[in-house]
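Journal club prep, shared notes

We agreed each person brings one worked example of a sequence with its structure written out as tokens. Mine is LRC66 protein. I'm keeping it raw so we can talk through how to read the token line rather than staring at a rendered picture. Sequence first:
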Amino acid sequence: SECQWDGQLFLNCSFTRMSTIPEDTAQTAVTADLSYNNIRTFVCSDGRNEEWMLKHLNLSNNLISELTLTTCTNLPNLETLNLSGNAIHTLTLEMPTPAHGSKNYSIVDRLLPALKVLSVERNNLNTVPRGLGLLQSLQTVHMSSNAIQQIDPKDFQNCSQLKDIDLRNNRITKIHPDAFRDLNKLQVVVDLRENALTIPLPQILVSLNFFQLEVYLSKNAW
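Then the structure, token by token:
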């Protein structure tokens, strides 16, 4: 492929006009930059379940519209995933409900266990992707410049390690009072600037730890 490979850690495929992930991508790469291309589909696993060494994956500024992360069982070391600047309207994290009441958590338990930073800025999401709590190490989630309209009580459920939430420049009009209640490690920022909030949020703010937290609420409609 036209990618540049340093032979050991870094794979640079940005600005190569590729439309698919190159088959000769080295599984030993620690950082892969696939940004600014024409990629429409990204599938983590090729079915062989061979583990990659990737820690940092940049897929920003492509043409991806739908993405399923439940297949990413071959990326146990991935720490940062940048999906900004695509056309994503559906980001699937949850597994389908098992048939006949059976339970199979083997795949879910391996869903990106090391992921700390998820960036989905400048996409077409109209809701917070359900299942963020399955990313057990997630600390930062950036979802600014989407079309998210409200924050529901289960949107950040079980996100016990979450420290930083960026929801700036969406269309948020409603936030459930318990939306951030159990996020005990929030200590950096909850950014709600440039939304469509019209009423004060005392119940939400009381549930947050102001001694460690910065909350941004400017440029709303109140």
